[in-house]
Structure formats: C-alpha cells, structure tokens
What does this fold into?
Amino acid sequence: MNKKEEIKEEFLFEKKNYAIMLVGLLFIALGFVLMSGGGSENPEVFNEAIYNFRRIRLAPTLVLIGFSIEVYAILVKVKK
It folds into this structure.
C-alpha cells in the first residue's frame, strides 16, 4: 500500500457543526451591529440614545447567545 492511500484527510467538524457555527456568528454580528451608533455630531452635546434598551440589553444579550451557540457547535457530537 502506498502512503498516499493510507492517509485519509478528514475535517475536524461535520457539516452540521459548521452550520451551527454560522448561526452563532450571525447572532454575534447582529449584536455588534445593534450595539453601534448613538454618537453625537457635537461632542459637547450629550445624546441619551446611547442608554436605550437596544444598546444596553438587547445587543449584549445577542452577543452572549451567539457565543453560547459557538460553544455548543464545538461540543456537539454528530451521529454518523
């Protein structure tokens, strides 16, 4: 037997794992997009929009959910 025949390349994860990872990345990206903004044109004027629900509660929650999905995608074992 040749060495080329003995070596079989395999991916570290299955297709399902990568799909779950993609969903987690989308949650993280959405959280960071929702967190952006709230600045002011004039630095001497305070803008209350930085403390709204979207930036303080929703966006960080989506980022944490995304990281949790990523951990799950790494740890899940796909049945063959």
